[in-house]
Amino acid sequence: MACTTILVGRKATYDGSTMIARNSDSGSGRFTSKRMTVVQPAEQGSVYRSVLSHVEVPLPADPMRCTSMPNALLDEGIWAGSGVNEANVGITATETITTNERVQAADPLVRLRPAANGMPEQPGGIGEEDIVTLVLPYIRSAREGVRRLGELHAKYGTYEMNAIAFQDVDEIWWFESIGGHHWIARRVPDDAYVVMPNQLGIDQFDLEDALGEQREYMCSADLREFIAQNHLDLSLDGKLNPRDAFGSHSDSDHVYNTPRAWFIERFLNPHACRWDGPDADCRPDADDIPWCRVPERRITAEDIKYVLSSYYQGTPYDPYANSGDRSMRGKYRPIGINRNDFLALIQIRPYMPAAWRSIHWIAFGSNAFNAMVPLYAGVNQIPDYFSKTGRDVSTDSFYWSSRLIGALADGDYGSCIALIERYQMHVLSQGRAVIRNADLRLASASPSDQAAIMEQANQEIADMAAKETEDVLGKVLFQASMHMRNAYSRSDS
Question: Of the residues 92, 311, 412, 478, which has the maximum number of CB atoms within 10 A of its CB?
Answer without folding.
Answer: 92
